[in-house]
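Extended Data, record Flavin reductase
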Amino acid sequence: MKIDLGSMPALYPMPVLMVAAYDENGVPCVMNAAWGTICGMDKIALIISEGHKTTQNVRVSKAFTVALADREHMAEADFFGIATGNKMPDKFDKSGCHATKSKFVNAPIVDEFPITMECDLAEIVETENLHAVVGTIVNVCADEKVLDDNGKVNPEKLNALIFDQFQSGYYVSGEKVGKAWNAGKEMMKSAQS
């Protein structure tokens, strides 16, 4: 029997995304954003409010990076979600993390996180119900330690954090349980006969 839980953001899993941008003085600011998704083969949409310091920086720099947080850097990722750049201008320095300027866009790559999408600002969508920063993914860089023998990202090595909106927990993804566009083939054959 199902139990009614009321209105809530009941989507699981959610990625733990580290969004980074430079301010007008070239100082990096990073925020933890759970509400984001790929919205095209070369596009990412981040559902983040106008009030974030990082959002303001994206408007100025016209670029940003999005890194996947991992188990090894969970404390840093959580810190970037707790501390606000609006009240702590030296938040990045206090994190102990390091940044390298992207070769492709005017944005910082946080060295500690294993995979980063380097993005140019495509548009900011503002409606009554939505404020989204959309980026064009110009490049993806990854630590060699998370790549397989063919040079592709191996999710089992990535140890990417996922966010649980039900109990505010962090979990790690990684176990492969099937192959996409293959697990349902037998059902497709049966449905077509």
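Summary. The mean pLDDT is 94.
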